[in-house]
């Protein structure tokens, strides 16, 4: 997978790292399941360099699935399109500059079959989330690394389709059991811990959730 590692965009864009590669491993492990779902709309939140959306597009094919990526960082959008070009995607995914899914929640309401999110999860002071440095905002998660994750949990149910899949990366420091319970309140239930790995001083997990029909 090629990315624009030497592009000027990358001074403020999160480059693929251990967490990115763990996510790729999890999606590859679950590829048969994902293909069986036959997702029409796939959404990556916080798309960064675009490496995960690129991999999904290559695996699933753009003829049957429509890919959207969101990011708050305009430079990430530029880096994504460069990644798509380097990897010769037939139809480039659509990149939307927005905070999480803010500008898409009405338009995509209950229509997204597959959502992937590698959030800013690193525990930091809350002040770092408000930093003007776009690179810092890509990884700084605030107290327990949960500020952005909790906002995501309260909004993702608006766009995830019934029986849709959500893949979410968490660190042990994020208190995953609490996140699981929060999502459960929105009818999004844990399906499986797809993969977990210790990376340097972090213990990371990729969790697969599925949205059930409202009772």
TrEMBL record:
Subcellular location: Nucleus
Main subcellular location of this protein, as a coarse class: nucleus
BP term (GO), one: methylation
Keyword Transferase tagged: yes
GO CC annotations on file: eRF1 methyltransferase complex; nucleus
Keywords annotated in UniProt: Methyltransferase, Nucleus, S-adenosyl-L-methionine, Transferase
Residue ranges occupied by any Methyltransferase small domain in the UniProt entry: 39-126
Catalysis performed (reactions): methylarsonous acid + S-adenosyl-L-methionine = dimethylarsinate + S-adenosyl-L-homocysteine + 2 H(+); L-lysyl-[histone] + S-adenosyl-L-methionine = N(6)-methyl-L-lysyl-[histone] + S-adenosyl-L-homocysteine + H(+)
InterPro entries per the UniProt record, alphabetical: DNA_methylase_N6_adenine_CS, Euk-Arch_PrmC-MTase, PrmC-related, SAM-dependent_MTases_sf, Small_mtfrase_dom
A GO MF term: protein-glutamine N-methyltransferase activity
PROSITE patterns: N6_MTASE
Lineage: superkingdom: Eukaryota
NCBIfam families: hemK_rel_arch
Family: Belongs to the eukaryotic/archaeal PrmC-related family.
Record's subunit section: Heterodimer; heterodimerization with TRMT112 is required for S-adenosyl-L-methionine-binding.
Function in brief: Methyltransferase that can methylate proteins and, to a lower extent, arsenic. Catalytic subunit of a heterodimer with TRMT112, which monomethylates 'Lys-12' of histone H4 (H4K12me1), a modification present at the promoters of numerous genes encoding cell cycle regulators. Catalytic subunit of a heterodimer with TRMT112, which catalyzes N5-methylation of Glu residue of proteins with a Gly-Gln-Xaa-Xaa-Xaa-Arg motif. Methylates ETF1 on 'Gln-185'; ETF1 needs to be complexed to ERF3 in its GTP-bound form to be efficiently methylated.
Protein name: Methyltransferase HEMK2
Source organism of this protein record: Tetranychus urticae (Two-spotted spider mite)
């Amino acid at each position: 997978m090629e990315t624009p590692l030497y592009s000027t965009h990358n001074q403020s864009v999160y480059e693929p790292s251990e967490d990115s590669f763990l996510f790729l491993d999890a999606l590859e492990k679950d590829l048969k399941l994902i293909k069986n779902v036959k997702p029409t709309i796939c959404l990556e939140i916080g798309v960064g360099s675009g490496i995960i959306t690129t991999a999904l597009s290559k695996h699933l094919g753009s003829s049957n699935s429509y890919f959207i990526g969101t990011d708050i960082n305009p430079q990430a959008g530029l880096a994504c399109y460069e990644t798509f070009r380097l990897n010769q995607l037939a139809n480039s995914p659509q990149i939307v500059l927005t905070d999480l899914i803010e500008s898409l929640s009405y338009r995509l309401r209950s229509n997204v079959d597959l959502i992937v999110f590698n959030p800013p999860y690193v525990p930091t002071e809350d002040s770092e989330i408000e930093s003007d440095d776009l690179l810092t905002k890509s990884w700084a998660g605030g107290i327990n690394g949960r500020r952005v994750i909790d906002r995501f949990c309260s909004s993702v149910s608006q766009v995830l389709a019934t029986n849709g899949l959500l893949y979410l990366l968490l660190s042990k420091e994020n208190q995953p059991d609490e996140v699981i319970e929060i999502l459960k309140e929105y009818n999004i239930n844990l399906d499986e811990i797809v993969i977990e790995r210790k990376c340097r001083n972090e213990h990371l997990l990729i969790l697969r959730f599925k949205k059930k029909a409202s009772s």
